[in-house]
Design goal:
By secondary structure, the chain is an alpha+beta fold. The protein contains five helices and 18 strands.
Amino acid sequence: MENLRIETIEMHTGGEPLRIVKSGLPMVPGETVFDKMRYLKENLDSLRKLIIFEPRGHYDMFGVYLVDVEGADIGCIFIHNEGYSTMCGHAVVALGRYVIDHGIVREPVSPETRIVMQCPCGPVEAFVQYEHGKTGNVRFISVPSFLFQKDVEVDVPGYGIVTVDISYGGAFYAFLPAERLGFDLSTTPTDQLRNAAGTVTEALKGVLKLTHPENSDLAFLYGTMLTDGKDEYSDASHLCVFADKEVDRSPCGSGSTARIALQFHRGLIKLGQKRTFRGPAGSKFVARVVKQVNVGSHDAVIVEVSGKGHYMGSSVFTLEADDEIGKGYLLKQEITE
């Protein structure tokens, strides 16, 4: 990391941070986003830790590398406390504004400009509002999403047998109302929800066998979504705990996509019907089913999610030669009650 200089743009979507690496990322070999992601994981993971971990970041920091790939305007490699993500909706929403505002893509058009982002889960279309030279809300059309398995029973340490649903929205999530764990989603401290959801994820990883019909690299459980149980309501809330017990401050774009797929499969919403999902910071995404499709043997749906990202500033990071702590570390606080 000699002569290290990393420039970033800092954004957030619904309170969830996004650290966009503007410059300083070395050339990353590979034909596909997955190829490039593997190379970074095997050869340059120290860079992720420097950007995401303390003292420059924090336990719940989230970031993205932008790379060139054929057939898309940009390629996205998402990074977090545990490693790398296959999809991130809040990042797509923020990046929609970023790539236009920074001249990364073609000349924008009104009333909205279409951007194709190649994510590890597949191509994602983003439509960015553009009026009078300014960008606004962003809606994205994600990859086909589906309910993988419903009513899965799992023995969760400290909670006993718990029933969850497993749904895919660019990543696999477990879904259950927080009340099944004895919590009220709106009043329970976030750290208690974090640890409970993380315990559910770990318990499932030991027994759940996931498959994806198009890419075996997508077949892993990314996290657990604790909901308010209001799946028949137009306005509902949830909290996403992903990676190594990281809490999404936004309503989670890929999680909202997966929840819509779950609701549609259970007959709780209809084609075109909208749902507003609220995250722990109080922000909201609006989601709806736009099309029914098939993926392998799964009855799947195409989901649209909309929101807005905001700029917060910019950073320039360096690393002195003798700064071992500055390479990145994490302090974690666990609540076991």
